[in-house]
Amino acid sequence: MNQKKLLFTPGPLSTSLTVKQAMLQDMGSRDHEFVNAVKQIRSELLTLAHVTKEEGYETVLIQGSGTFGVESVISSVVGKNDYLLILANGAYGERIAKMAGIHQLRHEVIRFAEDEIVTPAAAAAILAAHPDITHVACIHSETTTGLFNPIMDIGAVCKKYGKVFIVDAMSSFGGVQMDMKEMQIDFLVSSSNKCIEGVPGFAFAICKKSELEKAKGQARSLSLDLYEQWAGLEGNGQFRFTPPTLSLMAFRQAMEELGEEGGITAREKRYKTNKAVLDQGMSVLGFKQYLQPAIQGHIISSFLYPEDPAFNFERFYEKLNNRGFIIYPGKLGKANAFRIGNIGQIFPEDVKALVAAIKEVMEEEQVTNTVVATGR
Ligand SMILES: *Cc1c(COP(=O)(O)O)cnc(C)c1O
C-alpha cells in the first residue's frame, strides 16, 4: 500500500479504516439492510441536531457533494414570490448567491469583509429596511477563512422578523454542538464527508417540516427537488434515483464511531485540541493567522504566507505532500494564505507531526518568518 496520507483539509477528510471497510460489501438499493441504514441515518441526524420528528423536523438525503444539498434547499424552498437575502462573507456565501442567480430567484446579497463576521445588528438593520424579504441564508463555518458566523444571534433576528432561516453548516455540523431549535434554523445543510467523518457521496438537509411542505411543486430542477426527494424517502424509504449505497454504509459506520468517541461534545473537544496544538506550533515557527482569534472557529485556519521571497507555496505543498501531509491552498480575495484543517480522523499527535514537517520544510527551503521563535 502507498504511504499513509493525512488530510488537513476541509473535506474530503481522513477517515478511519473501519469506515472504509464498511464499503466492502456490494449493496442493492432495495436491500433490506440498506433501506434500514438509510432510515437509521435520517433519524440519527435529527438526534445530532437536538430535534425530533415529533417536534416537526425531517432529514432529507441528497446525492452528490455538499453543494448539491445547498442548491437543493435554495432552489426548492424559495418560491416565485419569495425574496432571499444572502449574508455573505466568503466564497461559500458567494456560491449561494450564484445559485440564486442561476435559478433566477428574487434575491439580495449583502457582503461583509472576509475577515469580519456577519453581525446580528447588520442583519437586523437589513431586515428592518426590507420587509419583503422572506428567507435568509448564511454560512456557519465560512471555510474560506475559518471564521464562525454567530448563527444563534442571527437566527434570533430572523425569527424576530419572521423569516425562514437557511444555514450552510457544512464544515461545522458534527464538530460543533448545534441545537437547531435553539438556533432557530429552519434548514440546516451539511454533507457526508465533513465532521461526521464519512466518505463523499451525499449531502443532507435537516428541515423544519412545516417549511419543507411549502416547497411542494416549486423546485427548479427534477434531481434537486427537495420536497420530492423527501416524499420518496418517506414513501418507500428509497431514493428516487441511484443512491450512493456504499457512501451511506460508510456514513452509518462513521455515525457509530462518533457515538463511541463520545458524541459531538467529545469530537468538538478533539478538534479544539488539534487547533490549539496547531496554533501553538505554528506561532513558534513565526506564522501569522489571517483572522482575529475572537472570530476564528476550530475547524480550519488560514495562515499568511511568510514574507520571505524564498517561500514558494507550490514547493512547500509538494514537500509536505511527499512527507504524507496534505494541506489546503488559500481562497482569499485580499491576502496570500494557505489553510490547515483540524477535522477528520486526525489527532493531536498528527498535528504535532505536521508542525514538525513544516519546520523541516522551512529549514530545507531556507525560509524564515519575520517573527522568529525565541528561547530555544
Ligand atoms: C465543503 C463546503 C461546502 C460544500 O462543498 P462541496 O465541495 O460541494 O462538498 C459548502 N459550504 C461550506 C461552508 C463548505 O465548507
What keyword list fits this structure?
376 residues, seven-stranded mixed sheet, Aspartate Aminotransferase, domain 1, globular, Aspartate Aminotransferase, domain 2, alpha/beta
Task: Summarize the entry for a quick read.
This protein has helices spanning 17-21, 32-48, 66-77, 91-102, 120-129, 151-160, 209-212, 226-236, 245-261, 263-284, 313-322, 348-364, and strands at 6-7, 57-63, 84-88, 107-111, 135-139, 141-142, 147-148, 164-168, 187-191, 202-208, 300-304, 325-326, 328-329, 337-341. The protein has 376 residues and is α/β, with parallel strands linked by helices.
Named once each, the bound ligands are: pyridoxal-5'-phosphate
Mean pLDDT: 96
Strand order of the largest sheet: 2-10-9-8-5-3-4
Strand content: 15-25%
Q: Which CATH architecture of the largest domain would you pick? A: 3-Layer(aba) Sandwich
Quick one: overall form?
A: globular
Q: Biggest β-sheet: count, sense, barrel?
A: 7 strands, mixed
CATH topology of the largest domain: Aspartate Aminotransferase, domain 2
Number of separate structural domains? 2
Low-confidence stretches: none
CATH superfamily of the largest domain: Type I PLP-dependent aspartate aminotransferase-like (Major domain)
Number of strands: 14
Order of helices and strands: EHHEHEHEHEEEHEEEHHHHEHEEEH
CATH class of the largest domain: Alpha Beta
- Cα-based radius of gyration, to the nearest Å: 21 Å
Given the structure, what is the number of helices? 12
Cα end-to-end separation: 39 Å
